[in-house]
């Protein structure tokens, strides 16, 4: 392979990206060396097994990926803003809508949710850490390796260009000869292993490590949503792993799974992909429902209405999520009976979802509502998400779907579901739990400004797409002629996209501003909230709870506050903690190289990297480390310092 | 580390119990994984294009031998855990060694099988049927191979540290994994080979 094939060449945008990547990397290296932070980075972050720090790293990555995916989105909107634009060529456009989809779903929404659940779930159930802290670090570094592998594709070798669903035969080596889809297959396999391990880890944590007295039906709703999400992960992600493995075999080793000759079946890919792909939607949406439930109940000053029906509806949604996958390809000829079945199951999902919507509304009913930033996002979510849901039912009707299949109507629909559902939720959760992690709130004025920019611009961007779709504009078209009349609405959409960008920049600026100027919170409970995480001082000490709380009912912390009872009357004793380890990070690096070499079919280096992975796993098995103890006096001192001598 | 003496060694600490429960969940994911592979195989089994079909290349003798070896190894890993519960380090190790040897013999025959298939004109790229057959068998075989490495690592630790909470826990989890591979093989034997031979 020649060097000019190795690096992507010929496009000024790519050259710009290369230069900026090199400059940013150099700046980071220089900064770390100049401020002597290498040791700090290694000790405090790269080797950490603390669930809170791992959560923070997930969220930082997610914000970076939000920026990357957002730039992709802006480029797409710019290219389609006017008829016959010459800003991007067709190939570049294909790559950008592919990476936008993959990054936003798998490397933005999922890690953001994983970050929040890492930080919050152990705190909500009164645990010291997750069940397997080391495994948790492995999960993170595998996700990180996958994300980095995916992101270097656009300067080395070329990005995947067959859509985020990578349908065959388009994604086969015959029609997509660049290494782009090898990156797709390998990076998602690597980060997928991490995701699966997270699923196992959190189920064990939630089922086995709850504080005494916290029965399943006393758990906070966010913890419930994470439990159900992890169950979906365990059954859905292996399907993706196999689909990607078969894709890799087809592309690298000449197998015939999805080919057009020798008995291959391209529709097999579509089925496998969506058997994972539709549950995946609920993997990102259910935790979002949990976050909204926490926030709405906190700021309405009421307990959550219909707790049991909330849990039941999530269980029903998770079961139905595995029975609807064929609605993604009604038009591909599986016949009326099959389409009819999937139509009905799809519409059935609207029922439990509707139950949840009404539960939130009844929680708000007669509540003393305070309009904080996280609450604004939650309130905006309800109507916007309902539009997404109702258009979803429109799409669910198979016969009508023939009209809008693969049009911009669909694009508008899923953005109307995923942006209020997932993105508003993680931003709301981010604002809500930020003081728990860092000890100060984000500025409310800047937060609300960002909210209004994001909420209004979101509708300006995506509402026109419903009409574009109904007028017949297909998705993934890189340009259109003036006679189509698509121009004005696309321009409006571009204006909205700029507003969204401003909103997100304000959000990031708010983090910077608040870090410098916001007053510190000494109470640990700045929102006057309900669940156990708020009973700890902020920022949360490494051991979480000085003494394990005893739970007597739902909203344990709220009632402890109201009745002026301590959560526990036990004395502080020494606490056992797991020690830090660098091996998960090293394992991530090894997996990154394994993936990279396989992408380019460099077999000898691949085998060496594979052996390295096995050796690291073996050394992990040989390690006999039983952690360390924090003495009781040290805990008493820490608590007094963090709480300002009130304990 | 709180030790519960009323429980067997491998269940003795909270961490140990969590590990065993977590591994059962992982096996749940493995079931989903193999279920997907079986589905792919059943979808593609009659799409052998111009290549040979299953009935043309499957032979009962080596497959029966493989089944015999793997089923016996499942029995011996059970004996190893039984010996572990009785606190017999030497016997535990011996039965794990026997298990691994049987596993290695199984893998040897499987590789030989693969060579025969290739020799008879069935390679990964011959047909969709061939691809799905090799991938299903290969994934199971790769699991066995990984098990051989894993088992050896555990043997070394047993030798070094004897039977304690850590090594007993690892041996027990390894036995769960090994039984699982056996169960998968029973499905492969019944629904790939026996059904294919009919």
TrEMBL record, chain A:
Name of protein = Quinol oxidase subunit 1
Entry's Gene Ontology BP terms? electron transport coupled proton transport; oxidative phosphorylation; respiratory electron transport chain
Q: Which residues cross the membrane?
A: 12-35, 56-76, 96-123, 135-156, 186-209, 221-249, 269-292, 304-328, 340-362, 374-398, 410-434, 446-469, 489-512, 584-600
* Catalytic activity field: 4 Fe(II)-[cytochrome c] + O2 + 8 H(+)(in) = 4 Fe(III)-[cytochrome c] + 2 H2O + 4 H(+)(out); 2 a quinol + O2 = 2 a quinone + 2 H2O
Q: Which Gene Ontology MF annotations are present?
A: copper ion binding; cytochrome-c oxidase activity; heme binding; oxidoreductase activity, acting on diphenols and related substances as donors, oxygen as acceptor
EC class of the enzyme, as a word: oxidoreductase
Q: Which InterPro entries match?
A: Cyt_c_oxase-like_su1_dom, Cyt_c_oxase-like_su1_sf, Cyt_C_Oxase_1, Cyt_c_Oxase_su1_BS, QoxB
Instruction: Indicate where this protein resides in the cell.
Output: Cell membrane
Q: Give the way it sits in the membrane.
A: Multi-pass membrane protein
Q: Where is the Cytochrome oxidase subunit I profile domain?
A: 36-552
Relay the cofactor remark from the entry.
Heme A3.
Q: What is its main location?
A: membrane
Cofactor(s) this protein requires = ferriheme a; Cu cation
From TrEMBL, chain B:
Enzyme Commission no: 1.10.3.-
Q: Which UniProt keywords apply?
A: Cell membrane, Membrane, Oxidoreductase, Transmembrane, Transmembrane helix
Q: How does it sit in the membrane?
A: Multi-pass membrane protein
The protein's GO terms of the molecular function aspect are: cytochrome-c oxidase activity; oxidoreductase activity
Q: Name one Pfam family in it.
A: COX3
Q: Where in the cell is it found?
A: Cell membrane
- Regions that span the bilayer: 21-43, 63-81, 93-112, 132-156, 176-194
Q: Note the PROSITE patterns from the entry.
A: COX3 (PS50253)
Single GO cellular component term: plasma membrane
| Catalytic activity reported | 2 a quinol + O2 = 2 a quinone + 2 H2O
| Listed GO biological process terms | aerobic electron transport chain; ATP synthesis coupled electron transport
- Grouped into one coarse class, the protein's main location is membrane
Entry's CDD domains?
Answer: Ubiquinol_oxidase_III
Q: Which residues form the Heme-copper oxidase subunit III family profile domain?
A: 1-197
Provide the family line: Belongs to the cytochrome c oxidase subunit 3 family.
Record NCBIfam families: QoxC
Protein purpose: Catalyzes quinol oxidation with the concomitant reduction of oxygen to water.
Designated name of the protein:
Quinol oxidase subunit 3
The gene coding this protein: qoxC
């Amino acid at each position: 392979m020649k060097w000019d094939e190795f690096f992507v060449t010929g496009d000024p945008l790519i050259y710009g990206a290369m230069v900026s990547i090199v400059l940013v990397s150099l700046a980071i290296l220089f900064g770390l060396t100049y401020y002597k932070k290498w040791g700090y980075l290694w000790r405090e972050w790269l080797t950490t097994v603390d669930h809170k720090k791992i959560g923070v790293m997930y969220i930082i990555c997610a914000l970076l990926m939000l920026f990357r995916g957002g730039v992709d989105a802006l480029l797409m909107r710019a290219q389609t803003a006017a008829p016959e634009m010459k800003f991007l060529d067709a190939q570049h456009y294909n790559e950008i809508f592919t990476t936008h989809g993959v990054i936003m779903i798998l490397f933005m929404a999922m890690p953001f949710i994983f970050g929040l659940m890492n930080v919050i779930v152990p705190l909500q159930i009164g645990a010291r850490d997750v069940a397997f802290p080391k495994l948790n670090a492995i999960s993170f570094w595998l996700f990180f390796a996958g994300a980095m592998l995916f992101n270097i594709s656009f300067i080395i070798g070329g990005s995947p260009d067959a859509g985020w669903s990578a349908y065959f035969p388009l994604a086969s080596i015959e029609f997509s000869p660049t290494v782009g889809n090898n990156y797709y297959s390998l990076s998602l396999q690597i980060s997928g292993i991490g995701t699966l391990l997270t699923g196992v880890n959190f189920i064990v944590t939630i089922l086995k490590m709850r504080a005494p007295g916290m029965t399943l039906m006393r758990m906070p709703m966010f913890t419930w949503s994470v439990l159900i999400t992890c169950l979906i992960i365990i059954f859905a992600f292996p399907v993706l792993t196999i689909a990607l493995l078969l894709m890799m075999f087809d592309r690298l080793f000449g197998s015939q799974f999805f080919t057009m000759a020798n008995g291959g079946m391209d529709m097999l890919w579509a089925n496998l992909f969506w058997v994972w792909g539709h549950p995946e939607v609920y993997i990102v949406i259910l935790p979002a429902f949990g976050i909204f439930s926490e926030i709405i109940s906190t700021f309405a000053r009421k307990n959550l209405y219909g707790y049991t029906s909330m849990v039941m509806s999530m269980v029903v949604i998770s079961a139905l999520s595995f029975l609807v996958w064929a609605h993604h390809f009604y038009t591909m000829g599986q016949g009326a009976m099959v389409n009819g079945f999937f139509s009905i199951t799809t519409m059935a999902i609207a029922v439990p979802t509707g139950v949840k919507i009404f539960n939130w509304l009844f929680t708000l009913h007669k509540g003393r509502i305070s309009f904080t930033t996280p609450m604004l996002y939650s309130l905006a979510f309800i109507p916007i998400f309902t539009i997404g849901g109702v258009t979803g039912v429109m799409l669910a009707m198979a016969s009508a779907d023939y009209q809008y299949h693969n049009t911009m109507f669909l694009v508008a629909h899923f953005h109307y579901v995923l942006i209020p559902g997932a993105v508003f939720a993680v931003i709301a959760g981010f604002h809500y739990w930020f003081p728990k992690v860092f000890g100060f709130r984000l500025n409310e004025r800047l937060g609300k400004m960002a909210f209004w920019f994001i909420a209004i611009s979101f509708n300006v961007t995506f509402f026109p797409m419903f009409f574009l779709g109904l007028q017949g504009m297909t998705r993934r078209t890189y340009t259109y002629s003036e006679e189509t009349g698509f121009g004005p609405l696309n321009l409006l959409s571009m204006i909205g996209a700029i507003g969204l960008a401003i909103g997100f920049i304000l959000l990031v600026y708010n983090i910077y501003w608040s870090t410098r100027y916001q007053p510190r919170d000494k109470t640990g409970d700045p929102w006057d909230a309900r669940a156990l995480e708020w009973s700890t001082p902020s920022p949360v000490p490494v051991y979480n709870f000085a003494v394990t709380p005893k739970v007597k009912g739902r909203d344990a912390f709220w009632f402890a506050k109201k009745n002026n009872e301590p959560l526990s009357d036990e004395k502080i004793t020494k606490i056992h903690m797991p020690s830090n380890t660098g091996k998960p990070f090293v394992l991530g690096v090894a997996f990154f190289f394994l993936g990279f070499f396989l992408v380019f079919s460099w077999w000898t280096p691949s085998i060496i990297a594979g052996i390295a992975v096995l050796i690291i796993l073996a050394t992990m098995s040989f390690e006999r480390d039983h952690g360390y103890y924090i003495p009781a006096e040290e805990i008493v001192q820490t608590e007094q310092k963090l709480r300002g001598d009130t304990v | 580390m709180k030790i519960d003496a009323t429980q067997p060694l491998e269940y003795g600490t909270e961490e140990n119990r969590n590990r065993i429960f977590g591994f059962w969940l992982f096996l749940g994911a493995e079931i989903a994984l193999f279920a997907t592979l079986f589905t792919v195989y059943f979808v593609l089994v009659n799409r052998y294009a111009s290549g040979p079909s299953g009935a043309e290349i499957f032979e009962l003798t080596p497959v029966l031998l493989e089944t015999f070896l793997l089923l016996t190894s499942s029995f011996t890993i059970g004996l190893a855990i039984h010996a572990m519960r009785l606190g017999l380090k030497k016997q535990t190790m011996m039965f794990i060694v026997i298990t691994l040897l049987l596993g290695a013999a199984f893998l040897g025959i499987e590789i030989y099988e693969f060579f025969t298939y290739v020799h008879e004109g069935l390679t990964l790229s011959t047909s969709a049927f061939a691809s799905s057959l090799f991938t299903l068998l290969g994934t199971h075989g790769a699991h066995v191979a990984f098990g051989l490495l894993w088992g050896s690592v555990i043997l070394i630790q047993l030798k070094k540290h004897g039977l304690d909470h850590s090594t007993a826990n690892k041996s027990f989890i390894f036995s769960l994994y090994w039984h699982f591979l056996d169960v998968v093989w029973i499905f492969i034997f019944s629904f790939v080979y026996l059904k294919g031979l009919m």
